[in-house]
UniProtKB/TrEMBL annotation:
The active site is at D18, N66. HAMAP family: ISPT. Signal peptide: none annotated. Its EC number is 2.5.1.-. PANTHER family: DEHYDRODOLICHYL DIPHOSPHATE SYNTHASE 2 (PTHR10291:SF0), DEHYDRODOLICHYL DIPHOSPHATE SYNTHASE FAMILY MEMBER (PTHR10291). Substrate binds at residues 19-23, 31, 35, 63-65, 67, 69, 186, 192-194. This is Isoprenyl transferase. Its cofactor is Mg(2+). The lineage of its organism: Bacteria, Pseudomonadati, Thermodesulfobacteriota, Desulfuromonadia, Geobacterales. Homodimer. One of its GO terms (molecular function) is ditrans,polycis-undecaprenyl-diphosphate synthase [(2E,6E)-farnesyl-diphosphate specific] activity.
Length: 246
């Protein structure tokens, strides 16, 4: 176990949970088995993030592009999602964790949305970590829809074009009101962000690991956080400026 500085943990951690299918195929198993094992890793990461006091955890669970996967796999994923939410809501209540969902929920099946609505309702009064699930989510789609909502408000006279700033635009995103992620972890060796939080990741520290998501252990998680803590976040400033401020 690594010694992590509690003062240098990310306020907002985002994760692209990749490699479930590859993990299964490498073992000559059905892809859904990989997703089932991946759900166990989700449990571990949520637990560890909660124990460490991370305030915001956002998980890329299902992208808008994932609808193009084989219909049988998509149905199995939706069933697994419902089962996970139902099983874990009681634990979220015990740990004071609140559910949140971003993405185009109109694409999700009605029974999945009903399960999500109930979990969000039950945990709405919780004040601890905010667990956000990105479902049927695509960054470009989010940006275009935010621009559309903002344009309608401008036409309606609710907002002047001269008043539009990055903060104003950001408030129209699915993540409006949330801090941008400090740290992004992506598993399975892919070194891209795959249309995830395109606006929000502007100054996020990125971490890529070859490990597939089902094999992402507590030690791997702590190794990633230790890497984050070793970085100097300058936001356009020089190292000298950061040192003087500290």
């Amino acid at each position: 176990m690594m010694n992590l500085d509690p003062e240098k943990l990310p306020l907002h951690l985002a994760i692209i949970m990749d490699g479930n299918g590859r993990w299964a195929q490498q073992r000559m198993l059905k892809r859904i088995v990989g997703h089932q094992r991946g759900a166990e890793t989700v449990n571990m990461v949520v637990e560890q993030a909660w124990r460490l006091g991370i305030k915001y955890l956002t998980l890329f669970a299902f992208s808008s592009e994932n609808w193009s996967r084989p219909a049988m796999e998509v149905r199995a994923l939706m069933t697994l999602l419902k089962k996970y939410i139902r099983q874990e809501t009681a634990r979220m209540m015990r740990k004071n964790i609140r559910y949140n969902v971003i993405g185009n929920r109109s694409d999700l099946p009605d029974d999945v949305n009903a399960t999500l609505d109930e979990a969000i309702r039950q945990t709405s009064g919780n004040t601890g970590m905010l667990l956000t699930l990105a479902l049927s989510y695509g960054g470009r789609q989010e940006l275009s829809m935010a621009a559309s909502r903002l344009a309608r408000d401008v036409v309606a006279g609710k907002c002047s074009p001269d008043e539009i700033t990055t903060d104003v635009f950001g408030s129209y995103l699915d993540t409006g009101g949330l801090p941008d992620p400090d740290f992004l972890i992506r598993t399975s060796g892919e070194m891209r962000i795959s249309n995830f939080l395109l606006w929000q990741l502007a100054y996020t520290e990125l971490y890529f690991t070859e490990t597939n998501w089902p094999d992402f252990t507590i030690n791997e998680f702590q190794k990633a956080l230790a890497d984050f803590q070793a970085r100097e976040r300058r936001f356009g400033k020089t190292s000298d400026q950061i040192s003087k401020r500290n």
